[in-house]
Every structure is written in C-alpha cells, then in structure tokens.
C-alpha cells in the first residue's frame, strides 16, 4: 500500500484513531482501494509498544472473520492499514440492526460457542471466561 489519502475519522480507541481512506496498491496494476487506517494519537512508549504488538499480532491473523491487515506505513508516522469494513465495528453493527437480528437466545448460544473456542485455544474453562 502507498499513497494513502484519509477521508474521515470512523472510530477511536484507547491510544489511536481509525480513518476511512483510499490507498494505492503496490501491485503492478496500481489500483486504488478503500481501507481503514489506524494512527497513534498518544505517543507514549507504552502506547507505541501496544501498537507494535497489535501490528505483530495482526500480521499472523488470517481468518475470514477477522479484519485483514493490508500493510504498515512508517513515514511520516507509523500507521496500520487494514481492510475497510463498511458496517463498522461489531458493536455498532449489532446496535444499528438490533430490531431484525436473531432472538437473544441465539446470541447466548453464539457467545457460548465463542467461549468454547477460546477455552480450546487458551486452556481455561468457559465459566472462568464469563467471570472476566
């Protein structure tokens, strides 16, 4: 990714802001695509370490249900370029579409399925996860 043009802020976290942007692909076709760009707003050493850790984790994640990392730019500042998701975060999507989504009992089943998956990966019990 190169030649990134920010189009507007779409989110904010503890140490950074996320912007909708257009970026030019580094492939031979030089096509443009919609992306999300995460920038650091707090430049403390702990925030930079957290951001670098997030980048390292994102590099290793390849799953259809996880936002894809497109790249990292380091000049003039470090930014994380990610797949743009039109509906925003899962939280905002669920709140916007709450009237026509599945009944609550289905959400509980899905939450339990997620807990079982985490239980398998992490090795702690589902009951411990729900206490967090």
Attribute tags:
132 residues, disordered C terminus, five-stranded antiparallel β-sheet, alpha+beta, 2 domains, 36% helix, Phosphorylase Kinase, domain 1, 5 strands
Description of the structure:
It holds the Pfam family PK_Tyr_Ser-Thr. GO terms for molecular function: ATP binding; cytokine receptor binding; non-membrane spanning protein tyrosine kinase activity. This is Protein kinase domain-containing protein. Helix content is 36%, strand content 30%. The longest helix is centred in the C-terminal third of the chain and has 19 residues, at 104-122. By secondary structure, it is an alpha+beta fold. A 5-stranded antiparallel sheet has the order 1-2-3-5-4, with helices on one face. It contains 4 helices and 5 strands, in the order βββαββααα. The protein has helices at residues 45-60, 90-96, 104-122, 126-131; strands at residues 2-12, 16-24, 32-40, 69-73, 79-83. Residues 124-132 have low confidence and may be disordered. It folds into 2 domains: 2-83, Phosphorylase Kinase, domain 1; 90-131, no CATH class.
In the CATH hierarchy, the third-tier topology of the largest domain is known as Phosphorylase Kinase, domain 1
Envelope shape: globular
Order of strands across the main sheet: 1-2-3-5-4
Mean pLDDT across the residues is: 79
Tell me which CATH architecture of the largest domain applies here. 2-Layer Sandwich
Helix and strand succession? EEEHEEHHH
Number of beta-strand segments: 5
Task: Kindly give the count of domains.
Answer: 2
**Rg (CA only):** 18 Å
Indicate the percent of residues in helices. 25-40%
Characterize the largest beta sheet: strand count, sense, and whether it forms a barrel: 5 strands, antiparallel
The CATH H-level superfamily of the largest domain is Phosphorylase Kinase, domain 1
Q: Approximately how much beta-strand content do the residues carry?
A: 25-35%
Total of helices: 4
């Amino acid at each position: 990714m190169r030649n990134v043009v920010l189009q507007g802020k779409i989110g904010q976290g503890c140490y950074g802001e996320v912007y909708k942007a257009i970026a030019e692909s580094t492939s031979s076709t030089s096509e443009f695509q919609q992306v999300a760009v995460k920038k650091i707003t707090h430049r403390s050493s702990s925030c930079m370490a957290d951001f670098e850790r997030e980048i390292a984790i994102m590099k290793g994640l390849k799953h259809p249900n996880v936002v894809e990392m497109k790249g990292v730019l380091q000049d003039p500042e470090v930014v994380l370029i990610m797949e743009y998701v039109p509906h925003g975060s899962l939280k905002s999507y669920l709140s916007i579409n709450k009237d026509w989504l599945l009944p609550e009992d289905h959400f509980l089943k899905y939450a339990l399925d997620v807990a079982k998956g985490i239980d398998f990966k992490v090795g702690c019990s589902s009951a411990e996860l729900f206490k967090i």
